[in-house]
Design brief:
This protein is of the alpha/beta class and about 300 residues long. The protein is built from 13 helices and twelve strands. Strands 3, 4, 5, 6, 7, 10, 11 and 12 form an eight-stranded mixed sheet that branches. Helix 5 links the parallel strand 3 and strand 4. The chain is elongated and about 70 Å long. The model has no long low-confidence stretch (mean pLDDT about 90).
């Protein structure tokens, strides 16, 4: 096999699986291949490219600079191969394959389930795979072709990506029912500095939107907040607030059940009024496969 021959789709698939799974053993299990077959494909790919793509260590494998450079185009090639299959099936009205969708915390929990149901009803031959993360992580996954479609709580700043609004929510301040601010009814920005706060991690669209709005109430409001804990999910935020750790800003979509059952309460904040849009993020139209276009259409009709 000549070094100038086209690279094998199978070898690229094995390489991407190896990087994503983190070890030869896990990659073999994921692909339902033997470990020796996985090793052979990677070794052949390295010989054809005349570079080392991965290095073994005690924790598994890590990519070399060459391997990292190959990862994004390899994912794009694999997505193009899936798109080619889908395009042929689309002609006969039988859309099939796998569509990977990214969702930040709120969309993944409260928006995407309904969209998945509507999409599955229209295209039962397509398997949907949800990948979750904060907004920044989901946008990065779209950019790197790890997912074809993402829905996040803040529009991306990357000009190489396209986005369209597909839903809305409002940010509210929640507290345990016995919190002093609940009895007070309405709080000012200055009041917030006197109470512990539970917040999401850096990169969260909810956190960014809340901090932007608080900054408009006074330059020192955000700086003066006393953060009791920083957590990685809305469910963890709600649990910490119920336990009395502090107050927190969350999406109103996420607390409907808790408000109905009286386990959480909303505190109005004077001057704080944040409506937020959810955005469906993709790479440019020309790079989208049939399933991604179909999913976008479903989201826009919802």
């Amino acid at each position: 096999m000549a070094a100038t021959d086209p690279l094998s789709i199978r070898q690229l698939e094995v390489f991407v699986a190896l990087v994503e799974q983190g070890s030869f053993t896990k990659a073999a299990r994921h692909l339902e291949l033997s470990q020796s077959t996985v090793s052979g494909h990677v070794a052949d790919l390295e010989r054809r490219l005349d570079v080392r793509l991965v290095e073994r260590d005690r924790s598994g494998v890590r990519t070399t600079a060459a391997g990292q450079a190959l990862l994004r185009p390899a994912r794009e090639v694999l997505q193009a191969e899936r798109n080619a299959r889908m395009a042929v099936h689309e002609l006969s009205g039988l859309l099939r394959g796998v569509l990977r969708v990214g969702g930040s915390t709120i969309p993944a929990s409260y928006l995407l389930p309904g969209l998945f149901a509507a999409f599955h009803e229209a295209h039962p031959g397509v398997t949907l795979r949800l990948v979750t993360g904060d907004s920044r992580d989901v946008v990065e996954r779209v950019r790197n072709a790890d997912v074809e479609v993402g829905i996040v709580g803040a529009p991306p700043q990357d000009r190489d990506l396209e986005s369209v609004e597909v839903g809305k929510d409002r940010l509210v301040l929640i507290a345990s029912p016995d919190h002093p601010l609940v009895a007070k009814g309405t709080a000012s920005g200055a009041d917030l500095k006197n109470h512990a706060v539970v917040t999401r991690e850096e990169g969260s669209g909810t956190r960014a939107a809340a901090e932007d709005a608080l900054a408009k109430l006074g330059a020192d409001v955000v700086r003066g907040l006393r953060v009791a804990c920083e957590v990685g999910s809305t469910e963890a935020v709600k649990a910490a607030v119920r336990a009395g750790m502090g107050i927190a800003f969350v999406s109103d979509l996420s607390v409907k059940d808790e408000l109905a059952h009286g386990t959480l309460a909303i505190v109005k904040v004077r001057g704080f009024d944040v409506s937020r849009s959810f955005h469906l993020v993709t790479r440019p139209e020309a790079l989208l496969g049939p399933a991604a276009r179909a999913f976008r259409d479903v989201a826009l009709r919802a």
